[in-house]
Design brief:
The chain is mostly beta strands. The chain contains one helix and ten strands, in the order αββββββββββ.
Length: about 200
């Protein structure tokens, strides 16, 4: 439910910023978005770490800075757009939990992802899209003197709004990452998931 509310708030904010009215919406999209593109985003990643053992469940959430680079390709069919996008990001959100008088620190260091994008042009310069993909992430887990750096893949989904400015564009996007289990240390099962909110832009070739 939180994710749905977050998506709705972000989409409403961007549509209001782009001043899209019912008079702007065309039956046929006039903006041409077919081709390759690249760019970068900055934003906030909110990560939740859950630890479960035989005695108790622990949970901690925190937010941190996020930055990414992306490259992709779109194909436009009248007012509909499909495409694929690859990305790499670094994240700085760290969670620390006290477990049985010991300290556990968890961080997602970076991720590499690929996603399928489907969207619609809603005005002459504005389009909305959803994406679904897989993300391979590198984690850093420390529990007392034990350190682990597991790599795990997870499904992610997202929603975004994009505005074209000539050959360039700006966009806002919200993503939700699902990862049920990252690793296990002693009897502690560690899982993570995250939300990201980001703003960025790029160039179309």
């Amino acid at each position: 439910m939180k994710g749905v509310i977050c998506y709705a708030m972000i989409s409403a904010l961007f549509l209001s910023c782009f001043n899209v009215s019912s008079e702007d919406i065309k039956t046929e999209g006039q903006t041409v978005v077919t081709g390759f593109y690249c760019g970068c985003d900055v934003g906030i990643s909110r990560k939740t770490t859950k630890v479960m053992n035989s005695y108790k469940k622990y949970k901690k959430s925190s937010a941190g800075f996020l930055s990414d680079l992306f490259v992709g390709y779109n194909k436009q069919y009248t007012k509909f757009v499909i495409g694929a996008e690859g990305s790499v990001d670094v994240r700085f959100a760290r969670n620390e939990l006290n477990i049985n008088s010991s300290k556990l620190s968890a961080r997602k260091k970076y991720s590499v992802g690929i996603a399928l994008k489907c969207g619609m042009i809603v005005s002459e310069a504005v389009s909305a899209y959803v994406n679904v993909g897989l993300q391979l992430s590198k984690y850093r887990i420390k529990y007392d003197s034990i350190k682990k750096t597991p790599s795990k893949s997870a499904l992610f989904v997202g929603f975004g709004i994009e505005k074209n400015i000539g050959d360039m564009f700006v966009r806002g996007e919200v993503d939700r990452n699902f990862n049920k289990k990252v690793t296990k240390i002693d009897q502690n099962k560690i899982s993570m998931n995250s939300y990201t909110m980001k703003l960025g832009g790029g160039y179309r070739f």
